[in-house]
């Protein structure tokens, strides 16, 4: 399989974690987001959204959208599971994953921030926008997992929710949105950062890291 | 069960379609988005994100995030399916659903447009932002389903992708982003608009419609 990604893309990072959790080795194709390589004609043939990541399977199928790719990996390589068997538990985990993937990340990603800069909005206001969206979203995530067992967001093993959390907290750090006062998220991030799959998937370990 | 929604919320609309497809009758609790009722303390106890929809189950569980709710409905009430059995087909359908739910809707929703108006950005620029995001996103969706069979996005019956498409096209119309030249989307919307579950779930049929 071949993963099209970029070391700092949150969505590609999620899929890298899932691949490492499942023990799947893939080839990597790098597309430099800041240089706009994801809009190159060749890549648009693979992924008409012009977004990262895409996963080319061994059968030549191209999968897009990080959460769809993670669910596909979970369905085709069941162990270790990214989602448990119980439908209610699955719904709660997916809700946190989607709270990050729909309501935080898209509103603070490179594309939106570039559009704000083009208005033009001063850099301080752009950074403030990102910081506000991230902080408010992560506070809600803390509330969504309140009362549950750690150290990961949903217990003793990482799930789909944790693999969305870690890249989002990476963005939180870049934009100065601390999570020190959000104890469940802080504990989950610490557990993830000690887990070999998360370590191997981290941006600074990738072939295109700067 | 009890659905917390608002007639014009795209995310609540998706869940209403899923409920009607599954033949599940629910009680409705309305929260007026433009009056900010989704931020009322009582509702924040149910849904810490302060977003619509939420679904209270008969067991008293509260589910959030429209796509997580739809997947839960599909897992607990399998017929008719929102996703087929084949993993690759599921991944393609989820990718279109997520292309709308992550990459179009959050970047043009009420909250983001309100933030743009508060910059302050003139109304024409705010509307232009929404129109651009929607048009670009729907063009990519058209490409994602190119070559497939209709009339729905993925064949003869509606799937999770169609129930994301219809509310998004509702927004496209409101913001003046026509889809007449996107034949697969246009055909799918026509098929949906003739389907009783989609008709029953439409905003103008809801108890809080204005």
From TrEMBL, chains A, B:
Pfam families, sorted: GST_C_2, GST_N_2
Keywords: Isomerase
Annotated PANTHER family: MALEYLACETOACETATE ISOMERASE
Family affiliation: Belongs to the GST superfamily. Zeta family.
NCBIfam families: maiA (TIGR01262)
InterPro entries hit by this protein: Glutathione-S-Trfase_C-like, Glutathione-S-Trfase_C_sf, Glutathione_S-Trfase, Glutathione_S-Trfase_N, GST_Zeta, GST_Zeta_C, GST_Zeta_N, Thioredoxin-like_sf
Enzyme Commission number, as recorded: 5.2.1.2
Organism the protein comes from: Muricoccus nepalensis
GO process annotations (BP): glutathione metabolic process; L-phenylalanine catabolic process
Domain spans labelled GST N-terminal: 1-81
Gene: maiA
GO molecular function terms listed in the Swiss-Prot or TrEMBL record: glutathione transferase activity; maleylacetoacetate isomerase activity
Keyword Electron transport: no
GO cellular component terms, semicolon-separated: cytoplasm
Superkingdom of origin: Bacteria
Official protein name in the record: Maleylacetoacetate isomerase
Lineage: Bacteria, Pseudomonadati, Pseudomonadota, Alphaproteobacteria, Acetobacterales
Domain GST C-terminal residue range list: 86-210
Class of enzymatic activity (EC top level): isomerase
